[in-house]
Amino acid sequence: TGLTTLALHASDNTSSNILNAAYLELSSSDGAVTLATITGGTAGQVLYITVTGSNNITLTNVSDTTANGFVIGGGDATYTLTAANKDTIIVIYNGSQWIRVGSGAN
Questions:
Q1: Which residues have C-beta within 8 Å of that of residue 16, sequence separation ≥ 6?
Q2: Are 82 and 39 in contact (CB under 8 A)?
Q3: Which tens digit of pLDDT belongs to each residue from 13-27?
Q4: Beta-carbon count within 10 A of 73 CB
Q5: What 3 state SS string does 10-42 have?
Q6: Span 49-77, pLDDT tens digits
Q7: How many Cα atoms occupy the beta-carbon half-sphere of 21 within 13 Å?
Q8: pTM (2 decimals)?
């Protein structure tokens, strides 16, 4: 529950380049998590984020210039990925923030 920032690196643990697009399955074994930022992104990078496990993952929606924050839209302060639905969100990094491209409850 203490996770607020997720850090990306140029490659994954098998040395595969993940700077263009990455598929992340996020899971929390210790209750619901709120994620405010993802650092280490590259302009144009696309992330597919899916929640797995039994706990929801909430993304903080920023409407200002918060570096590496999520711009979800819709006027809500947060966007929750519901674990029971295996929700997914697609975001693209514009060089300073992660912009929602699409999302869905599966």
A1: none
A2: no
A3: 555 555 566 777 877
A4: 12
A5: CECCCCCECCCEEEEEECCCCCCEEECEEECCC
A6: 888 888 898 988 886 778 888 888 777 78
A7: 4
A8: 0.78
- The first and second tokens of residue 89, run together, are 């969100």
- Residue 88: per-residue pLDDT: 93
Q: What is the dihedral of CA 46, 6, 43, 68, to 10 degrees?
A: 120
Please say whether the beta carbons of 61 and 72 come within 8 A: yes
Question: Which pair of tokens denotes residue 92?
Answer: 């693209």
DSSP three-state, residue 69: strand
d(CA 27, CA 21): 19
